[in-house]
Amino acid sequence: MAPTPFFSDRGCHVRIYEQARVLTQMGQQVFICTYHLGKDVPGLDIYRSRNVPWYKKITAGPSLGKIYLDLLLARKSWQVIKNQKPELLHAFLHEGGLLGPWLKRWAKVPLVLDLQGSLTDEIKAHKFLGQNRLALKIFQLLENWAVRGADAVLTSSRVISDLLAKTELPPEKIFIISDGVDTNIFRPAADKAAVRKKLGLPLDKKIIVYLGLLTDYQGVDILLRAAAKLCQAEPSLFFLIMGYPDVDKYQKMALDLGLSSNVRFTGRVDYFKESPEYLAAGDLAVSAKISLSEANGKLLNYMAAGLPPVVFNTPVNREILGDDGTYAELGNERDFTDKIKQLLDNDEARRQLGQKLRRRAEEHFSLEAIGGKIMAVYQQVLSKKMSSKKITPFWRIFYSYRRRHLTPPYFPSRLWIEPTNHCNLACPVCLNKQLPVEQKGFMEMSTYRRIIDEAGGRARDIYLHHRGESLLHPELGEMIAYAKAKGLAVRLHTNATLLDEAHARILLDSGLDFISFSFDGYDRQTYEKIKAGAKYDQVLANIFNFLKMKKQLGREKPFTNLTVIEFETGGADARTKKINQKEFLTKFQEWTPDSIRTRRPHNWGGALESTGRPKVRTNGFMSCTFLWYSLTVLWEGTVLPCPQDFFGRLSLGNVNQTSLTELWNGPLAKILRQSMSGRPSELLEPCRHCDRLFRRQILGVPVEEIKNYLRDNIFGYKSPKRK
After folding, report:
1. Between the N and C ends of the chain, which has fewer C-beta atoms within 10 Å?
2. Is the pLDDT of residue 67 over 70?
3. β-strand 653-654 against 489-494: which pairing, if any?
């Protein structure tokens, strides 16, 4: 539900379009209800409210006439809901938040509200009510009521997320879904001169571009005064200003400032056909928007086109551009002018910044990533209605395991998926350093999607780690979001060396269910001996910062676990180790993970000769449980029956050629299960020397597996009560 004249080549309309488009591509059926105004977009199913001849406003900003239009839109939305029976209502803007709860109650479907800014801030920016404090207070109360009626609220920036956190809206209902950009449409020109010639733009001048609304709150007056000063010093500069509505007003201002030969106003441009070409013709981009809370989606178009933008230093702009933005002091016109000049004078710096920002757009703001995050939110609000009948219950796995079925009649309930086998450490007790460089790599998203598409609704969960450090994968956040959108629980294990603020935010916003921090050593000496290349204090600080961010954001997920594998390093005796352990645990008094567990090392199917594992009493040989409930997929697609097979000696095939379903009960899988019914001497390598076949058991099932099942599926992962 879009209470706006969609589509009108501007701001929130682009967000609505991009979301609807990517959701449609992901197989969702999307109906858009909007005002009678606006142009239709091919490929989208648009329903318009009753025509109102006297209302022709398509520009942004509040107006009294919109109240009548919103009532007509509510009626049209009711009709569409009645006829199409959607599973979910996705409402945009605060008007959508005011109408949505009523439609939600009638239709009995969840409501997701999508906001790009603060309603009261927008009213102030457009000077709609002047300084009427009572009216502003009323709108503030309406704004708070609107967000509380939603099952989930999507925001385009952390700024809005933080504002919402100050209301009575539970933090777990707030999700940051940034704007996206189609980097296939918006891209640098292969031949900039040819583009300029086609558009009638000067070939011998540096062109500074602006794309957006022509209004005071967008800082267009600041931009033009800066342009006048720059062109006075350097007449060869040219400003290309694209947008509407107040073209005449700003053309007159440009004329008064002596810019008649240095500026072109295009007026409204077609977002799909004209904007990409005009941006590709530029050398530099600008945005003088001074709002502290509203989104600034034009920056994504600049980035995709390889244009480094000069902007004011606001949290919203920093969130989009990161460390590669060129920032002027907020509202400082002189500094804004100077920053433009600095970039214009340094061609190489401008080129490098453009390339970095283009990569950033591809990595962090792709439409597929945005679609995956939205689907993850949908999955959460629809979770009460989703059926889990396809997911194999534990009793069935238990029965098949005890009967030693050669072809279990179900899909594996758990997958280990390896995003990468690269690791940034060189631990002496780890086999990773024995992997040849040419056998290392990163999983392609096409391979990953193939796995998740098959597992969605059939497997219970995935572990996004195996032989490497998963945080090294540049698309890890997208991987988590995509799996969540398919209804899978997602777990992660990390050494936390790379867990900076940016990575922490990605994980906290992704919907991750469980994260385990590997911290093998209670004291600095032991830890840095085992985790070669890691710094004890820095990694602890990373973990504390993650726990702190989770609490500040009010996130219930992910469940946090600190795992310490107790290796025998030939150092401290048992008493000293106990003292070190006690001192270590005191470090977590302020920021405490949900659980802290110690484990004994295993020998990776006999591949690791010495684990330093203390001698323990065992109850004899027992069949491997992995063969009856899980599969492991390496980064290049190789499928293994067991995550203990470090070097991939028991390949079942490759998921890029054969489905997981076929490989699960393929010839080698049957042979392996059959071998488990015999004696240890009859096992294949590496199973024959695997120490995990000798574990404590009850009724022929490892005690560890029973504990894990009860925690995963009955009792759940619950944070302990702490004062």
Report:
1. C
2. yes
3. unpaired
Sequence-separated (6 or more) residues with CB below 8 Å from residue 97:
91, 113, 115, 143, 146, 147, 149, 150
- Measured between alpha carbons, how far is 463 from 621 in angstroms, rounded to an integer? 27
Q: Which pLDDT score, from 0 to 100, does residue 356 have?
A: 95
422 alpha-carbon distance from chain centroid = 22
Task: Give the three-state DSSP class for 114.
Answer: strand
Contact by Cβ (8 Å): 110, 173? no
pLDDT tens digit string along 9-47? 887 899 999 999 989 888 889 999 999 999 999 999 999
CB within 8 A of 448, min separation 6: which ones? 417, 419, 479, 482
Which residues are paired to 326 by β-bridges?
A: 310
CA distance 56 to 40: 16
The residues pairing with 34 across neighbouring beta strands, listed in sequence order, are 2, 48
Ranking 335-344, 493-502, 577-586, 665-674 by mean pLDDT, the lowest is: 577-586
Does residue 7 have a cis peptide bond before it, meaning omega lies within 30 degrees of 0? yes
pLDDT in tens, 224-279: 999 999 999 999 999 999 999 899 999 999 999 999 999 999 999 999 899 999 99
Identify the H or E element spanning 338.
helix 333-345
- In the structure encoding, which two tokens stand for residue 283, read together? 């050398």
Residue 82 has pLDDT above 50, yes or no: yes
DSSP run (H or E) holding 228:
helix 220-233
Q: Is the peptide bond before 202 cis (omega within 30 degrees of 0)?
A: no
Closest of 504, 509, 512, 503 to residue 462, by C-alpha = 512
pLDDT over threshold 90, residue 639 = yes
* 0.90 surpassed by pTM: no
User: What is the SS3 assignment for 519?
Assistant: coil
Handedness of CA 609, 610, 615, 617 (dihedral sign): negative
- Specify whether the CB–CB gap between 7 and 13 falls below 8 A: yes
Confidence at 98, pLDDT banded by 50, 70, 90: confident
Answer whether residue 60 shows pLDDT above 90: no
The C-alpha torsion from 308 through 311 and 313 to 315, rounded to 10°, is: -80
Cα–Cα distances (Å) from 316 to 147, 160, 321, in that order, read 20, 9, 9
Residue whose pair of structure tokens reads 């503030």 in the numeric block: 140
Q: What pLDDT is attached to residue 172?
A: 75
Interacting residues of 104 by C-beta distance below 8 A, sequence separation 6+: 89, 110, 111, 149, 151
Token digits for 155? 């925001």
Cα atoms in the 13 Å half-sphere on the side-chain side of 719: 18
Q: What are the helix (H) ranges across 387-437?
A: 394-402
At 686, phi and psi to the nearest 5?
-95, 5
Q: Given a cut of 70, is residue 468 above it in pLDDT?
A: yes
The letter for the amino acid at 676 is M
Cβ pair 327, 289 in contact under 8 A: no
With pLDDT > 70 as the criterion, what percentage of the chain qualifies?
85
Chain position carrying tokens 């199913």: 45
Q: Could you tell me which of 348, 305, 354 has the C-alpha nearest to residue 325?
A: 354
Say if residue 363's pLDDT is above 70.
yes
Which pLDDT band, with edges at 50, 70 and 90, does 123 fall under?
low
In 3D space, the residue among 32, 315, 357, 303 whose CA is nearest the CA of residue 156 turns out to be 315
> For residue 46, what are the β-bridge partners?
32
- Tell me: cis bond preceding 245? Omega within 30 of 0 counts: yes
- Reported in sequence order, the residue ranges of 573-614 that DSSP labels E, i.e. its strands, are 595-599
**CB count, 10 Å around CB of 453?**
12
